[in-house]
């Protein structure tokens, strides 16, 4: 289980999300024309934070970044694959990263580089638990994908952040969904700032994902309070809210 750690041992972490008025981070509101100015502002503010890495949960990675899921049956591991952290030197030199929370090792890949429109190239770092098979480690090495072990049965987010700073010199990290990934870091006291870019649109869905969502595999945790740092309207009737996590 994650433990509280000194902030100097890990990167500064901001949770940066585009949301509807009712706190949804996916769903039909994205297609509304009134959401477009907020989407543009969300992209601009990514640059404001100057983060070296962006962290995503498994579902977000599968839907937007990875090549779906890895093959159900992988080739046998190539020799004895060390069950230890692997850092691709060329990826490290790139200096920009996408960190994929993939505790069971299920995501599919065809490259260790992700390129998105209007964003710099990013090297993929897989965050794994000890449950991952040696065959999957061999699969990742085939594509030069770096990986870090952080936890036995579930991801230890504090350990992951510590390794990201130590092995990749990451000083500033953005987490951008999904809701379970966001809550995982929040309940462990690992989010320093919350940045909400709010579109002037209500979604109303009962199935769309919210900014923070608990999951059955996470330890029980009560509500988490924030302190307002800044509120700024922007063109198109949107609002940017910045919060700091309140001291316990």
From TrEMBL:
> Do you know which InterPro entries this protein is assigned to?
DHFR-like_dom_sf, RibDG_C, Riboflavin_Biosynth_HTPR
- UniProt key word Lipoprotein: no
SUPFAM superfamilies referenced in this protein's UniProt entry, alphabetically: Dihydrofolate reductase-like
User: Chloroplast: present as a keyword of the record?
Assistant: no
Q: Provide this UniProt record's keywords sorted from A to Z.
A: NADP, Oxidoreductase
The pathway it acts in is:
Cofactor biosynthesis; riboflavin biosynthesis
Q: Which GO terms of the molecular function aspect are on file?
A: 5-amino-6-(5-phosphoribosylamino)uracil reductase activity
Listed under GO biological process in this entry are: riboflavin biosynthetic process
Q: Which residues form the Bacterial bifunctional deaminase-reductase C-terminal domain?
A: 11-232
Under what name is this protein listed? RibD family protein
Q: Per the UniProt entry, what species is this protein from, by scientific name?
A: Candidatus Ventrousia excrementavium
